[in-house]
Amino acid sequence: MSEQTKKVLDSFKTANRKIKSFEEALGVLYWDLRTGAPRKGMDVRSEVIGELSADMFKLSTSPELGEWLSELERKEVFASLSEIDQRLVTETRKDYNRSVLIPPKLYQEYVVITSQSESKWEEAKEANDYAGFKPYLDKVIRYTNQFIDLWGAGQTRYDTLLEPYEPGMTVAELDRIFGGLREQLVPLSAAIASSPNQPDTSFLRQQFDVAAQKDFSLYILQQLGFNFEAGRLDESMHPFATGLNPGDVRITTRYLKDDVTSALFGTIHECGHALYEQNIMDQLIGTTLCTGTSMGIHESQSRFWENVIGRSRPFWNRYYKELQARFPNLSHVSCDQFYRGNNVVQPSLIRIEADELTYNLHIIIRYELEKMIFNEGLTAAELPEVWNEKYKQYLGIAPATDSDGVLQDVHWSGGAFGYFPSYSLGNMYAAQFANTMEQQIQDFWQLVEAGNLLPIKEWLADKIYQYGKMRTPSELVQSITGQVLDPQYLVTYLTNKYKDIYKL
Ligand SMILES: [Zn+2]
Question: Fewer CB within 10 Å: N-end or C-end of the chain?
Answer without folding.
Answer: N
